[in-house]
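Why does residue order matter? Because the sequence determines the fold. Keep that principle in mind as you read this record.
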Amino acid sequence: MTFSPAILAEQLAELECLVDRPARYIVAFSGGLDSSVLLHALANLPIEGENRVSVVAIHIDHGLQPESSSWSELCKVTAAKLGVEFRSINVNVQLDSGKGPEASAREARYSALQTELRNDDWLLSAHHREDQAETLLFNLIRGSGPAGIAGIGSIRRFGPGWLARPMLNINRADIEIYASDNELRWAEDPSNTDRRFDRNFLRHEVMPDLKLRWPDIAARLQRSAGHAGEASQLLLELAETDLKSLGPSSARIPIDELTSLSAARQRNIIRFALRDQGLSTPTAIQLDRIMSEVIPAREDAQPLVTWPGAAVRRYRNGLYLMPETLIAAIESMPILGDELLLGPGLGRLTFEAGTDIGLSKELFDGGLTVKARTGGERISLFGQAHTRELKNLLQESGIVPWMRDRLPLVYSGDHLVAVGDLWLAADAVSDPGIAVRWVGRPALH
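Structure:
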């Protein structure tokens, strides 16, 4: 397949059959050959009038090469010649993250690009057929499953919009011909020839030898990726069906019901549930640890498996999937109105007057404070005769251990009058009163 603006328009039209029409095209514009060709073809689409979608080119400066500032300037000049809106963004790549320079740069790049997207924008990336082949080989070597072998998808959700790759069916040779025919200028990143990076080794050492034996190797591998993609989709559909049968939440999976299924379906459900929660997926080793250490653990144990971006815990009969870093503890703060923000991930407390039973207005007039749990708290519950230790209440109610020190405790002076919206103190209640609501609270059970 040769390449032209007309062919690009056909590829974009096919993607529009899958999702909503784009509000804008946001081009991930590195200034290299591939993205330069994509931007040029996009600016010259054979579409006029109201059907033309506006284009924005965004260059991400990783600051990893001495020439990076000149690349940004080249991108700016190129976009101006094409009449395309341009923006350059500097990012800080965390090279000490343990993920490797390629993965760290990619993470910083996509994080910055995601913040630029509005609803229904399409972020366009210039991945082509050889990129797909390299990705498949790379993931095979890593021991990836069907999702990894499926390689690069043509379009997927990305923040408020979509990440689309309309050039996956285009050969690199056709891209080079297009660039030559249109006398395009582009930047060459010297790191792209550094064989120390796995993908570069595959690109420059492995793929040329494969092409000598099988000239159409990229197309063959792309077909394999397509078959793996279909298998991966079937696994996703099975996981979604299985997960719905286990309960309403993908953040807490009942272990008794989970273990009634085969081990393969258990692993499939866990991968899907993590993805459904927006968490990073585990490696095969991490998933094996979940299966061998977390799921079969005693109910009174608190096993934990973590990796960058996610954590899996067990408490009683629940398998809990959550971010790697727990939300911060509650800070002491006064209640000054009818709403109190508790901090990132903790939601807010609201106070609604006129309910049948709630905290008395006199308490609010005297001033209330939210504090964190420190231990030793006691409360006389409304409707019960005896004072109870908060520690015992939390255990009996099945509050997960990692949230027990993150509950908002409401005090009148030194007197505990409410624990979030879970319990009220008997001597703090009036009828009618002021109800305590914990909006957006994290999972407690």
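The chain has three domains: 5-224, 247-322, 333-439.
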